[in-house]
Amino acid sequence: MANILLIYGHPKTPNSFNFSLKEKLVFALKERGHNVLVRDLYEVSFNPLLSSDDLSKFHNNEIPDDIRREHEFIKNADIIIFIYPIWWAGSPAIIKGYIDRVFSYGFAYMYKGNKVVGLLTDKRAVIINSNGSPYDFYEKAGYYNAIKKVTDEGIFAFCGFKRIKHIFFGGIMNKTPEEKTTDIKKAIDETIIEIEAK
């Protein structure tokens, strides 16, 4: 049994692919006995703006209350799942802001001399992304590899995560309901395999 924190960053209605994926994945994980906590960043009105007040507090070894709360959720998780769409070859602003504010110095990473030390070494991550452009277009253009380089290596490996699984689904806007159902099943199956891997 794993403690799972699911960070959800999509603003659309319950008809969206991301929302259906989130709901079905949570159900499947709970059915298998895992503990799942969902943080829907839009629903909780997470503030993604790293402010001068935040920075001042960080420099004084203080943590703003809303960030401290997210730190506790991360500390209690074995695995963090991110579900969000790719917009303009990157993450939505609310996801980027979550990383900016929550994966803070002294919590997620630190420096020892010229060496980076990741501090979240007991965590694993699963990232599930959808995008409107066709999968082959993103693949051939190298966008998926670039996204993995920035996200998997530049964020999660940098912060010490011991395993990272990244799942992409392209061309979502033009897929049939049946194709979306197949994609959701694939995402659930691959996530469960990753979570339950020894």
Describe this structure in words.
By secondary structure, this protein is of the alpha/beta class. It has one domain (3-196): Flavodoxin domain (Rossmann fold, 3-Layer(aba) Sandwich), CATH 3.40.50.360. The chain is 43% helix and 21% strand. It contains 7 helices and 7 strands, in the order E-H-E-H-H-E-H-E-E-E-H-H-E-H. A 5-stranded parallel sheet has the order 2-1-3-6-7, with helices on both faces. Strand 1 (3-8), helix 1 (17-31) and strand 2 form a beta-alpha-beta unit.
Structural class: alpha/beta
The CATH superfamily is identified as Flavodoxin domain
Order of SSEs: EHEHHEHEEEHHEH
Number of helices: 7
Q: What's the arrangement of strands in the largest beta sheet? A: 2-1-3-6-7
Q: What proportion of the residues is helical, as a percent range? A: 40-55%
Instruction: Evaluate the radius of gyration.
Output: 17 Å
Strand content: 15-25%
Low-pLDDT stretches: none
Query: What is the mean pLDDT?
Result: 95
Describe the protein's topology:
Elements: E1 3-8, H1 17-31, E2 35-40, H2 52-59, H3 65-75, E3 79-85, H4 93-102, E4 109-112, E5 115-118, E6 124-130, H5 135-141, H6 143-157, E7 163-169, H7 177-196
Parallel strand pairs: 1-2, 1-3, 3-6, 6-7
Antiparallel strand pairs: 4-5
Helix pairs in contact: 1-7
Write a concise keyword list for the protein shown above.
single chain, 198 residues, alpha/beta, Rossmann fold, five-stranded parallel beta sheet, two-stranded antiparallel ribbon, 7 helices
